[in-house]
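Request:
Um, any thoughts?
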Amino acid sequence: MYLGTPDVAVPPLGALHAAGFEVPLVVTRPDTRRGRGSASAPSPVKEAARELGIEVDHDLARVADVGADLAVVVAYGRIIPRAVLEQLPMVNLHFSLLPRWRGAAPVERALLAGDARTGVCLMEVAEGLDTGGVYAMAETPISADDTLATLRSRLVVMGTELLISRLTTSLGRPVPQEGEVTHAAKIDPAEYRIDWSRPAVELDRLVRLGGAHTSWRGKRLKVWSARPVGPAVPDALDGFVPGAVVGGTGAGDAGLLVAAGDGGLEILEVQPEGKARQPVADWRNGARPAVGDRFGA
């Protein structure tokens, strides 16, 4: 059987089905409302399972009556109780190099922390939060251009290949996790606000996470693309407070340079409140920022 909920759990389910593994039941989180007053919507995994003709349920108690030999868990979204684990062995596809980044947001935390590499682990499901032994893992570097979307997509492909490979051959024996344990707490909405007193390299990582925002003249402004600058240009940034426009205000400039706590952040793509994403040059034509004007003030 299969346990999963979001988009990242769809490709492994499809791969298991395509490889000929019998999946008698998919268990996913209950339907949720997308917005105020809207009808409830099924999870991406529920939709995928229906398209594949697989029975779907929201009740973990069904584990006891499906007659499966193994359950595959991918981003199910809740800790599985011990009583359930005693009824059926389970393997989990986790998107980090355990024991680093146990928890709900391992890809996000690896990106925000500036990790040089990350990966995926195929692990046994044990009582607790991502504490089980590891059957296999695969690694990938995190490049300076990786966004959450590109990194997550790569990890899903790697994880799906690892899952099918091991289930087709042999899982082997799990190896206990070794090393420093870190926890990947879910990203709080407040964390997406740009704190201009932080170093530019950290702000760049936040932007690459997707959804980073600041304010401009009292309205929210999302920043979708940027790059850190400096502190290789100390003369240009000297004397400016964090959040101040430093340069890039000319008609021919592609980016807008803003002072950070250390170095500067060149903003390349933004989304004004109530409008579509656009190059910062197009936004600048209407907003008309001047050197010294401040974001987040």
